[in-house]
Design brief:
Oligomer: single chain
Bound molecules: beta-D-mannopyranose
Number of strands: 21
Radius of gyration: 30 Å
Structural class: alpha/beta
Number of helices: 21
Distance between the termini: 36 Å
Shape: elongated
Length: 811
C-alpha cells in the first residue's frame, strides 16, 4: 500500500479523530482536570465524572498530560484553541518541574500529594521515561531549551544509575537517593522482577523522542541497545508475544502475555528504528511486528464484543494478571484479577483504578468492594501495565464518535460527549502517542532522521580559539545541568599544613579526589616576578597547570594585578583605570604587562605540545570598592573599556587563542546590577560571580539560589557558561556545610544545576598572620567527612568524573 493510498484510506478516520481530539478530548481535560486550587491537574476523576482535587498526583499521569498538550500544540498549532493547548502544556510543565522533579537528588518522584509535596519519592525508571518523553515533546513543540535540558538531565540520571553495563537494559527502580530498592514493583499487580518489558517499552518510547530533538551519540547507542533487547530478549521468537518479566541477566521469569503491550510495542519499535534511521534494524523490527500483530488478534474477543487486553495469569509467583473485557458492545467493563497460582481475587470497581495511578499496595487493595455498576466509559489507568486497561470497545464507532452522541440520551457526559465518546477520549489520552503517529497523521508528519535538528553549537568569544579551547567551551556547555565541576584555588601549590609537596592536595586528602577545576593567580606576572603575591612560583605554576590539565581538569586564572598608577598592589585604589586606557599615561606600561600575560599563557603546553586552555578572569569583583578597578574607582564605561582593551589586545594583537574570558562581579541583587559593568558578549565566555555571603548558612539559601538563577539565565540567554567563581566559608566551621548548605542550593532546581563550576577559595598555609584562612577542608578537618559525601554526590564532578573536555563533542 503506497503512502498516498494509505493516507487516502485513512483520511475519514483521521478527520474523525481530529474532531474527537479538538472538540471532545482536549476540551474535556481543559475544562475538568485543571486543578485551580493547587496548580497542575487533579489526580483523579471518578466514574461519575467528579474531579477529586485532593487525590495524589502521579508522575506518569502528569507526564502524559504534558506530552498530550505539547503534542496537541505541535500538531494543531494553526487551529483555533492552539494557544490553550500550549498554555496547558506549560501548566503541566510547571507542575512537573516544580513538584515532581526532585531538587536534591534529581529524577521525578513517583507520586506527590495534591499540593505537590512528595508522597512516594522513589525513582522508577518507568516514570523517568515518561518524563523524558514528555519533556522532549514539549521542547519539540515549543523550542524551549529548558525542557530539552531537563530531558537530557533525566537521561543522564537513568544512564548513570539504572543502566546495566553487563547485560544491557535497565534496572527497575531506586530509592529517592538512587540507592538500592528491595521491592521494585510499580504496583502490586507486577512481579518483583529485576527487569520488565514495560519499563523498557517506555524507555524505548522516551529515548526515540529525545533522539529526535537531541541526536547525541551516546543516546543513539542506548536506543539501539533497547531495540536490540526487544528483538533478542523481550520478543518471544516462538510465540511472537512479548515476555513481561526478567531476571537481571534477561532470563524470563513469567509466561504471562499482555496483548495491549504487544500492539503498543509493534509501533513503538518501528518508531524507534525510524528515529535511528537504521535500515537493517528496521527490517528486523518489521518482521517482529508482523508476527506479533497476528498473535495479538487472538486477544480480540468475538461474540459479546470487546477486546481482551491482558492474557492468562502468569505462573510466576506473585504476578497477578488482570483481565478486562468491554463486553456487550461496550456496555460493561468487567474485571477479574487472578492472583498467585490463578486464585481469583475480588473484583474491583472501575473507579478504584482511576486515573490517579497505581493501586495502593497491600491488603487494602484486596478488600475493595465488587463493582456496583461498572461502566464501559471508566477511564483507563494512567499507566499501562496495570490490572485494568480499557481498549476501544469493538463497536465503539471511531469515525462515528460524534455520530454516537445523543444515542438514547443516556450517553451524554461532561462536555456533551457520549459515553462511547468519553471512552474514546480516555483511550486517546493514554494512547495519543501511537494514534497520532500511526493513524491520525498517517502519511503526514512522520519524522525522519533528516528532520532531526541538531542543537546549535555556539562558540567562544574568540572565533580563532584553539581546538582544545573551543572543545572546552562546548563540552562545559553540554555538561551544564548534569554536573557541576568542583574547583579549588591554588590547590596543588599548598595546603593548610604544607607547601610545594608533589602530589598533595587538601581537596584530595579530605574528599578523596583532586578537583576538576584549578584556579590560579597571575598577579606578579606583570612585574616579571618569580612568584605571585601568594608565593606561588611561576616556574612551578607552569608545571602544576600542566599536571591539572593532564588529568583532564579545567585551568582558570584570576589576576590580582598591581596598581599601574602607583605600583601598589591590587588593593591600592589610587586612580588608575583612565591611565591605562589608550591615550593614558600608563597605557604603554599596561601593554607590556599584557605581553607578560601573553607570554605566560603561551608557554602552557600539554603533552602533545598543544596550548593549555585557560579561563582568564581579570578584573573580578568590579562592583566592590576594594580593587583599583572597582566600582568607586572607575565608571562603568571605563571599566568596560579596560576589559575590552585587555581582551582585544591579548586576542587580536598578541594572537593569544587559548583563553576563555570570565566576567565575575561580587554579590549582586538583580540582573541589571549584575550587568552594570558587563563588557559585552563579544568579550566574555563565562558569566561568573563571587559570593562569600549567601553561602554562610542555609538561612540565606534563597539569596544564593536567586543569584545562581540570575547568572544561569543571563548566561543561557547569551549561550555562555555560568560559574560560581569564588565561594566558601573561612575555616568551614559548620561540619555539615557541604551537604547542608552548599549542595542543597546548587541542587535546588534545573537552573541552579546549570552552573558549570564552583571554585572554593584557597587554603592558605597556617601562619601567625593567617591562622585559619582555608576554605576547603584538609584531612582531619571537622567538615572533611561531609565533604567526602559532597564529593560523592552525583551532581558534583571532581577529577575523574568529567568526560574528555578537550576534544570536540562527537556529532
Ligand atoms: C585574599 C586572601 C589573601 C590573598 C589574596 C590574593 O582573599 O586570600 O590572603 O593574598 O586573596 O590571593
Amino acid at each position: 500500500m503506497s503512502t498516498a493510498d494509505g493516507a487516502g484510506a485513512l483520511a475519514p478516520l483521521r478527520a474523525a479523530m481530529a474532531r474527537e481530539l479538538t472538540e471532545g478530548i482536549l476540551p474535556y481535560w481543559l475544562s475538568r482536570a485543571v486543578d485551580e486550587r493547587h496548580g497542575g491537574f487533579v489526580g483523579r476523576i471518578d466514574e461519575d465524572d467528579v474531579p477529586h482535587p485532593d487525590a495524589p498526583k502521579g508522575a506518569v499521569l502528569n507526564a502524559r498530560i504534558l506530552w498530550t498538550f505539547s503534542a496537541a500544540a505541535r500538531a494543531l498549532g494553526d487551529t483555533p484553541g492552539a494557544a490553550r493547548y500550549r498554555a496547558a502544556a506549560d501548566r503541566a510543565l510547571r507542575f512537573v518541574r516544580e513538584c515532581l522533579v526532585d531538587p536534591v537528588y534529581g529524577g521525578v518522584y513517583w507520586m506527590v500529594d495534591a499540593d505537590g509535596a512528595p508522597r512516594d519519592a522513589r525513582k522508577h525508571v518507568y516514570a523517568q521515561a515518561f518524563a523524558i518523553y514528555a519533556l522532549s515533546e514539549h521542547h519539540r513543540a515549543t523550542g524551549a531549551d529548558e525542557s530539552l535540558r531537563e530531558a537530557v538531565a533525566l537521561f543522564d540520571l537513568v544512564e548513570r544509575h539504572a543502566h546495566d553495563a553487563e547485560h544491557g537494559g535497565y534496572e527497575e527502580a531506586f530509592t529517592r537517593e538512587w540507592g538500592r530498592l528491595d521491592d521494585v514493583r510499580l504496583s502490586e499487580v507486577d512481579a518483583d522482577a529485576r527487569k520488565s518489558m514495560n519499563t523498557h517499552l517506555h524507555v524505548l518510547e522516551a529515548y526515540a523522542a529525545l533522539y529526535r530533538v537531541w541526536p547525541d551519540p551516546r543516546l543513539r547507542d542506548r536506543l539501539a541497545e533497547v531495540v536490540e533487547r526487544f528483538l533478542d530478549r523481550i520478543v518471544d521468537a516462538r510465540t511472537g508475544h512479548l515476555r513481561l518479566f526478567f531476571d537481571g541477566d534477561w532470563t524470563p521469569t513469567s509466561d504471562a502475555v499482555s496483548y495491549g503491550h504487544d500492539v503498543e510495542a509493534s509501533w513503538l519499535l518501528l518508531d524507534a528504528v525510524d528515529a535511528l534511521g537504521d535500515a537493517a534494524l528496521r527490517a528486523r523490527a518489521a518482521r517482529v511486528r508482523g508476527g506479533r500483530g497476528r498473535r495479538a488478534r487472538r486477544g480480540v474477543r468475538r461474540g459479546r464484543g470487546g477486546d481482551l487486553l491482558r492474557g492468562r495469569a502468569g505462573r510466576a509467583g506473585g504476578h497477578r494478571q488482570g483481565v478486562v473485557a468491554a463486553g456487550g458492545g461496550g456496555r460493561r467493563v468487567r474485571e477479574r484479577v487472578a492472583g498467585d497460582r490463578g486464585r481469583a481475587l475480588p473484583r474491583r470497581r472501575a473507579r478504584d483504578v482511576g486515573v490517579h495511578g497505581p493501586l495502593p499496595r497491600g491488603p487494602r487493595a484486596r478488600r475493595v468492594a465488587p463493582p456496583r455498576r461498572a461502566r464501559r466509559d471508566a477511564p483507563p489507568r494512567a499507566r499501562e501495565g496495570g490490572p485494568v486497561e480499557v481498549l476501544l470497545p469493538q463497536r465503539a464507532r471511531v469515525p462515528g464518535g460524534h455520530g454516537a452522541r445523543g444515542r438514547g440520551g443516556r450517553g451524554r457526559g461532561a462536555g456533551g460527549m457520549s459515553r462511547a465518546g468519553r471512552t474514546f477520549r480516555a483511550i486517546t489520552l493514554g494512547a495519543l502517542a501511537g494514534v497520532s503517529a500511526a493513524a491520525a497523521c498517517a502519511g503526514a508528519g512522520r519524522a525522519r532522521p533528516a528532520d532531526v535538528a541538531a542543537p546549535a553549537a555556539p562558540g567562544p568569544a574568540d572565533p580563532r580559539a584553539t581546538a582544545e579551547t573551543r572543545a572546552l567551551f562546548a563540552n562545559l556547555r553540554a555538561l551544564a545541568g548534569r554536573r557541576i565541576l568542583f574547583g579549588h584555588h591554588d590547590d596543588l601549590a599548598y595546603g593548610y599544613t604544607w607547601r610545594n609537596e608533589p602530589g598533595r592536595s587538601d581537596v584530595k586528602e579530605s574528599g578523596g579526589a583532586y578537583p576538576a577545576v584549578y584556579e590560579w593567580d597571575l598577579s606578579g606576572i606583570e612585574a616579571d616576578s618569580a612568584a605571585n603575591l601568594d608565593r606561588v612560583e611561576f616556574a612551578r605554576l607552569r608545571a602544576w597547570i600542566a599536571e591539572g590539565y593532564g588529568r583532564g581538569s579545567v585551568i582558570a586564572a584570576c589576576w590580582h594585578v598591581h596598581n599601574p598608577a602607583s605600583g601598589g598592589n591590587a588593593w591600592d585604589t589610587t586612580a588608575a583605570v583612565a591611565a591605562v586606557l589608550p591615550g593614558g599615561a600608563r597605557h604603554a606600561e599596561y601593554r607590556r604587562w599584557l605581553d607578560g600575560v601573553a607570554a605566560f599563557v603561551g608557554s602552557l603546553r600539554g603533552a602533545r605540545g598543544e596550548l593549555v586552555p585557560v579561563v582568564f578572569r581579570p578584573f573580578h569583583e568590579m562592583n566592590g570598592g576594594w580593587f583599583w578597578w572597582g566600582a568607586r574607582h572607575a565608571t562603568p564605561e571605563q571599566y568596560q573599556a579596560l576589559y575590552r582593551f585587555t581582551v582585544t589586545y591579548l586576542r587580536d594583537t598578541r594572537g593569544v587563542h587559548n583563553l576563555l574570558y570570565a566576567y565575575s562581579p561580587d554579590v549582586f541583587d538583580s540582573p541589571d546590577a549584575y550587568l552594570a559593568r558587563y563588557p559585552g558578549d563579544a568579550f566574555v565566555d563565562v558569566l561568573g560571580f563571587d559570593d562569600y555571603q549567601s553561602v554562610r548558612s542555609p538561612a540565606t539559601r534563597a539569596v544564593l539560589v536567586r543569584r545562581l538563577h540570575d547568572v544561569v539565565a543571563l548566561a543561557d540567554a547569551r549561550r555562555k557558561l555560568a560559574a560560581l567563581t569564588e565561594t566558601g566559608v573561612e575555616s568551614v566551621p559548620d561540619s555539615l556545610w557541604w551537604t547542608g548548605t552548599l549542595l542543597p542550593a546548587l541542587a535546588s532546581d534545573s537552573l541552579t544545576r546549570r552552573v558549570a563550576w564552583i571554585s572554593l577559595w584557597r587554603n592558605a598555609p597556617r601562619s601567625a598572620a593567617l591562622p585559619h584562612h582555608f576554605f576547603a577542608p584538609y584531612a582531619g578537618q571537622a567538615s572533611a567527612p561531609d565533604f567526602a559525601r559532597f564529593r560523592r554526590d552525583p551532581l558534583m564532578a571532581f577529577e575523574g568524573d568529567v568526560p574528555d573536555l578537550y576534544h570536540a563533542p562527537r556529532d
